[in-house]
Amino acid sequence: MRLLLVVNSFASSVNARNTVIVHRLLSRSHDVEIVETNRRGHAIRFAQDAARRELDAVVAFGGDGTLNEVATGLAGTETALAVLPGGSTNVFARTIGMANDPIRATNSLLAGIHEGRIEPIGLGRANGRYFCFHVGIGFDAAVVASVERHASLKRWLGHPLFMWSSATTWARGYDRSQPQFTIHDRDADHEVEGLFTVVLNTGPYTYLGNRPIDLSPDARLQRGLTAVTFTSLQLPVIGSALLRALRGRPVNKIDGIEEWPTANNIHISSKQATVPVPFQVDGDYLGDTPTLDIDYVDNAIRLVWPINSDHSDL
Predict the structure, then answer these.
(1) Exposed, middle or buried, 125 (CB in 10 Å: 0-12/13-18/19+)?
(2) pLDDT tens across 187-214, in order?
(3) 283-292 b/e with 16+ CB inside 10 Å = b?
(4) Which of 22, 64, 132, 234 has the most CB atoms within 10 Å of its CB?
(5) Separation of alpha carbons 90 and 236, rounded Å
């Protein structure tokens, strides 16, 4: 196969040594080009160019942000998406059954390619930007924005930086006193005001170390989008939600949280026109917006599945 290996050398788990090993392993049986990203949006253009040249697959070796850009560039084309974990969390790679080690993951990826395990999956789309596993609106996007303001520390601190940013954002970086946006399900003609919504294409929402934080156990690939909306961010609500999510139990049993089992066509609007709502896509903060339209695109991209994953119920 003709492959393009897109490497984000700034990602937490990417270094010169494992990049050389990954490239060497892929090159043993495939024709591999390698490129490195150096700015936001770079991987989108690399992927688009690979699709124009009709390469067989693009391998995203970086964090979830690199993966999102490659997927965005490939959506709607015949060039397949392949994933290698190179970030601090690697939500999507782990979701599809990959080891959180890039060398082991490369061997699983090669086995998947050898067995021809390339199948289409659906993606979510937020204001035209595709997402693989989730889009977050409100509080968690403000947390991601805080983390990105300390980007130089992210590679070394990882999860502790996210925990610190979550605490400081909750305490003084986000208005919890009143709803910040309205979410409207166009298909069901249903509306809720919220402080934080996550729209999931699959689960889990993220990981705390090796523990999945699964806000909606029913959210899985090829089932469409599921939304979980927090109407309260009081500590008992957040604490109860975290405990239930770590145990793989639905959080919608908690007062202050509502689940939308089908969220394939929703519109989100800021409660105040002068105060736009922050949003993040697959863990990358994309700014603040007064409105956000989210929909589901069936069979949006062809995915290379690692051979050691059983994706029948993902």
Answers:
(1) buried
(2) 888 899 999 999 999 999 999 888 999 9
(3) bbbbeebeeb
(4) 132
(5) 29
Q: What is the mean pLDDT of residues 18-41?
A: 95
> In the block, which residue shows the tokens 């930086």?
161
Q: What are the structural domains, with CATH classification, of the chain?
A: 2-116 (3.40.50.10330), 131-298 (2.60.200.40)
Look up residue 148 and give its two tokens.
């990105």
Chain centroid, CA 230 distance in Å: 19
Tell me the per-residue pLDDT of 131-190, one tens digit each, with 9 for 90 and over.
999 999 999 999 988 887 766 555 555 667 778 778 888 888 888 889 999 999 998 888
What tokens does 13 get? 């788990």
Burial class (CB in 10 A: 0-12, 13-18, 19+), 312: exposed
